[in-house]
Write a structure and sequence with these properties.
The protein is mainly alpha-helical and 335 residues long. It has 15 helices and no strands. The protein folds into two domains: 32-88, no CATH class; 110-298, MetI-like fold (Orthogonal Bundle), CATH 1.10.3720. 73% of the residues lie in helices and 0% in strands. The termini are close together.
Length: 335
């Protein structure tokens, strides 16, 4: 197993190199960019001072040199790669700060939404999936399935708008704040008051984040458990004197968790993920908004940094899922 983990980790390096090369090459074909934007601003400023004035070729060359675009694309990629090897993702054109600092400023929100939605989805979907499997075909199963599929087919951002209308003072109840992550008077609150204020702001967007995964996990566990309950070892356990529910919890439940281990690796990407639309609906300045603004503003260093880190987290997540396979089912071996 140790050799397998080492091989997987070593394979991450050429994979990351390939991903960064492809993304960098695609960026070269995207029209516009920081150079064109600054040239336009300088040209506009010059025209305001003297109508018809044009910026000189030397000024254009200076702007390109400032952003490093005076060098060929392969050289720029080699320079960027050398910085990454030193754990330097470069400087953001938009924020005029190191990319690390820009990402770190949004990271706490992503951590909260990623971990919270992951844990809550599993904590609710596992017992509910077991209950649905044990009561398959009952009114409880039909009723909860209706609610689950209703939540699944509604996009998170659309659900956010509905919740704002119903619970955020839109037209009915005014139970939850609907913008930002803290109140204006946050600094004047007690420590416990600050905790409650933050959680109060997070309830609605967090519900929108987790509803899709919650539905998938619940139905996945139910169907997996139903499949295990029909196997021979379950009938053998019942024949030997074990009650059906005891046989389910002691034997079938663990095997039914195997499909869920596949999705458990998503916890790594969830920490860097963000929903642009959900964050826009609730006015949350998180990773989703950062990705959107960076792409719109052609902030290539931020885009490259986020893609690189997200790809790394995705590969670590797949490795984590493989390790969970072994923990859940000892019969699985990776050589």
């Amino acid at each position: 197993m140790k050799a397998y983990v080492i091989r997987r980790v070593l394979l991450m390096l050429p994979t990351l190199l390939g991903i960064s090369l492809i993304v960098f090459a695609l960026i070269q074909f995207v029209p516009g960019g920081p150079v064109e934007e600054l040239i336009s601003k300088v040209q506009q400023a010059a025209a305001e001072k003297r109508p018809g004035a044009q910026i000189s070729p030397q000024e254009v060359a200076n702007i390109k040199a400032y952003f490093g675009f005076d060098k060929p694309a392969p050289v720029r990629y080699a320079i960027w790669l050398g910085k990454v090897a030193r754990l330097d993702l470069g400087k953001s054109y938009t924020y005029q700060e190191p990319v690390w600092n820009v990402i770190k400023s949004k990271f706490p929100i992503s951590i909260f939404f990623g971990l919270s939605s992951f844990l809550l989805s599993y904590l609710v979907s596992i017992p509910l999936g077991v209950a649905k499997a044990l009561r398959n075909g009952s009114w409880f199963d039909s009723f909860t399935s209706g609610l689950i599929f209703t939540g699944y087919i509604i996009p998170g951002y659309a659900l956010g708008i509905i919740l704002i209308i119903l619970l955020g003072g839109g037209s009915f109840l005014d139970w939850f704040p609907i913008t930002g992550i803290i109140s204006d008077e946050f600094e004047s609150l007690t420590p416990m008051g600050q905790v409650w204020d933050f959680l109060h702001h997070m309830i609605l967007p967090l519900f929108c984040y987790m509803i899709g995964d919650f539905a998938v996990l619940t139905m996945m566990l139910k169907n997996s458990l139903l499949d295990e309950m029909g196997k021979d070892y379950m009938r053998t356990a019942v024949v030997k004197g074990a009650s059906f529910k005891r046989a389910v919890w002691r034997h079938a439940f663990r095997n039914a968790l195997i499909p869920l281990a596949t999705r458990a690796g998503e916890i790594f990407t969830l920490m860097f993920a963000g929903s642009i639309l959900i964050e826009h609906v609730f006015d949350i300045d998180g990773m989703g908004q950062l990705v959107y603004t960076s792409m719109v503003n052609r902030d290539y260093n931020v885009v490259m940094g986020i893609i690189l880190l997200t790809s790394l987290m995705a590969m670590l997540g797949r490795l984590f899922s493989d390790l969970l396979y072994v923990a859940v089912d000892p019969r699985i071996r990776f050589d």
